[in-house]
Amino acid sequence: EMAKGHANLWGDGDYPWTNDAEDGWRGTSPVGTYPPNSHGFYDLTGNVWEWCRGGKHKSRIVRGGSYVDSLDGSFNRAATLGARATMHGTTSSGNVGFRCAKPPKRRTEYHWTYHDEEKHGPSLGVEDEFGRRHMVPQRGWEDRFSVEDDDELDELDDLDDDDAVTTEQSSSSP
Fold first, then answer.
1. 3-class secondary structure, 58
2. Sorted alphabetically, which Pfam families does this protein's record hold (predicted)?
3. Mean pLDDT, the chain, as a whole number?
4. How many C-beta atoms lie closer than 10 Å to residue 29's C-beta?
5. Is 149 helix (H, G, I), strand (E, B) or coil?
6. What is the arrangement of strands in the sheet containing 84-88, beginning at the earlier edge strand?
7. Close Cβ partners of 139 (under 8 Å, ≥ 6 residues apart)
8. Residue 166: closest CA among 108, 117, 128, 121
9. What is the phi/psi pair of residue 80, to 5°?
10. What distance in Å separates the CA atoms of residue 148 and residue 121, rounded to the nearest whole number?
């Protein structure tokens, strides 16, 4: 069960006429007002229903409850992490919102290798930790390969025959 002071919900006032603002807010609260959960996410329950999924249908899924909901469901809906409802895609309300999110950067370690130009032509390749060969990232590809530091690409530019590691490619690839 959620402890008081961990989500923006309707207080003990006479719903829908009086919100006693027991939590300090009569409407939405600023993001980060309440402590994050154990995964570091803020405001997953209460404050505003979050539009979680679009799709082909006119109804949209929203989750988490809002500031006009109660913790125990004694009025409106119970605001819990699992609280779920549907709303028409054109619904506009002060207690419905969305969360901007992006996937975390995924970093793969690459070992720079040199292609034998006489044997395979003038192309560079890399071998990942599983021995699979890939094309070498070129400038402008940083976002596709999650290269966080231009120094790695500069190392590639500085690569010459003395620094290169020659690899043999087996006929069967993993």
1. coil
2. FGE-sulfatase
3. 69
4. 18
5. coil
6. 84-88, 59-63, 49-53, 96-97
7. 153
8. 117
9. -130, 165
10. 29
Residue with token string 């009086």: 18
The pTM (predicted TM-score) of the whole model is 0.52
DSSP 77-144: -B--TT-EEEEETT---TTEE-----PPP----EEEEB--HHHH-S--EEEETTS-EEEPP-TT-HHH
Task: Map tokens 């930790």 to a residue.
Answer: 129
If pLDDT is split at 50, 70 and 90, which confidence band does 136 have?
A: low
Contact indicator for 61, 86 with CB cutoff of 8 Å: yes
For position 80, what pLDDT does the model report? 82
The pLDDT, as a whole number, for residue 131 is: 64
Token match 């949209």: residue?
60
Instruction: Enter the tokens of residue 163.
Output: 């620094």
**Which residue segments constitute the domains of the chain, with CATH numbers given?**
1-101 (3.90.1580.10), 110-158 (no CATH)
In this predicted model, what pLDDT tens digit does every residue of 8-66 receive, in sequence order?
Answer: 887 767 777 777 777 788 888 888 888 888 888 888 888 898 888 666 777 888 888 88
Q: How is residue 38 annotated by DSSP?
A: T
Residue with tokens 């976002």: 143
The two tokens of residue 17 are 């006429």
